[in-house]
Design a protein that fits this description.
Number of helices: 2
Shape: rod-shaped
Largest sheet: 3 strands, antiparallel
Radius of gyration: 20 Å
Structural class: alpha+beta
CATH topology: Ybab, Chain: A
CATH class: Alpha Beta
CATH architecture: 2-Layer Sandwich
Strand order of the largest sheet: 1-2-3
Order of helices and strands: HEEEH
Number of domains: 1
C-alpha cells in the first residue's frame, strides 16, 4: 500500500519540476549572452532559446577583397554566442534538476 503514496509524491515532484522548467524557459528566452570576434569588430547576441538576436559588424572590417575573413569572424562569433547560450541553459537546468542528466529534456 505504501507504493501508491510514494508514486503520488513522485508525480507531484515531477509536476513541480515541469512547472519550474516552463518558468525557466520563459525567463531564458529573455536573457541574452554576447560575444565578440576580431577584437570587437563583430558582436553577436544570442538568447536562451539559442536564437541569434543581433549581429553588429564594424564597417572597417568589411573588406570586399577578403570576404573569407569576415565570414570566419562571423562564424566564430556566432558559434561562441551559441555555446554561451547553451551553457547558460545548462546551468539553469542544473538548478532545477539538481544536476540530473536527463537526455532529451532540453
Amino acid at each position: 500500500m505504501g507504493f501508491g503514496g510514494n508514486m503520488q509524491k513522485m508525480m507531484k515532484q515531477v509536476q513541480k519540476m515541469q512547472a519550474d522548467m516552463a518558468k525557466m524557459q520563459a525567463e531564458l528566452a529573455e536573457k541574452q549572452v554576447e560575444t565578440t570576434a576580431g577584437g570587437g569588430a563583430i558582436k553577436v547576441v544570442a538568447n536562451g532559446k539559442q536564437e541569434i538576436v543581433e549581429i553588429k559588424i564594424k564597417p572597417e572590417v568589411i573588406d570586399p577583397e577578403d570576404p573569407e575573413m569576415l565570414e570566419d569572424l562571423i562564424t566564430a562569433a556566432v558559434n561562441e554566442a551559441l555555446r554561451k547560450s547553451q551553457e547558460m541553459v545548462s546551468q539553469a537546468m542544473g538548478k532545477i534538476t539538481g544536476g540530473l542528466n536527463i537526455p532529451g529534456l532540453f
